Amino acid sequence: MRFLWAPWRMKYILERKGQGCIFCEKPVEGKDRNNLILHRATYAFVMMNRFPYNNGHVMVVPNRHSFGIEELGTEEATEVFALLKLTIRVLKKVLHPHGFNVGINIGMAAGAGEDHIHIHVVPRWNGDTNFMPILGEAKVVPHYLEETYRTLYEAFKSLSKKNVRQKGIKRL
């Protein structure tokens, strides 16, 4: 039998699961780097998934605790979608994926354990699904979270400034 060492998973296994909503609590802590918050806008933010399915797995999250899409106001929904577009541009520029999985978690049964709607954006590459998840029951993420955070953070900063200058739009 072979062993796959993934000591960073122990933090997730042992950490005490809080009763609150991480999507409501983490943004107000003011520790964006520690909480992997990449970008903030008026009504929503982009946050890396601490336990990603793939390198660069991020979430677009409305600021307001909302159970479903139908609860979002027009401005909130518009900004969430604009952030989704910006997120995909950033991931294409930095990580050069061949495609994406984009999914909206609505309700606990769908994976929204916090009952706070959020959109997962998972970069995909040809051949990124291999024997490891099937035979080894393990997923290999080839890049450190901190390094991915740094490169994505800089790209968000650069692209969001560029959009404001070129299009004269409200800053995201």
Characterization of the model:
This protein has five helices and five strands. By secondary structure, it is an alpha+beta fold. The protein has a single domain (19-164), classed as HIT-like (HIT family, subunit A). A hairpin with a 3-residue loop joins strand 1 (37-40) and strand 2 (44-48). The termini are far apart.
Low-confidence stretches: 130-136, 164-172
Instruction: Quote the beta fraction.
Output: 15-25%
Helix percentage range: 25-40%
**CATH class assignment:** Alpha Beta
Give a short account of the largest sheet.
Answer: 5 strands, antiparallel
Q: Strand sequence of the main sheet, in spatial order?
A: 1-2-3-5-4
Query: What is the mean predicted local confidence, pLDDT?
Result: 80
Name a few traits of the molecule:
172 residues; alpha+beta; 5-stranded antiparallel beta sheet; 16% strand; disordered C terminus
Care to give the gist of this entry?
The chain is an alpha+beta fold and 172 residues long. The protein has five helices and five strands, in the order ααβββαββαα.
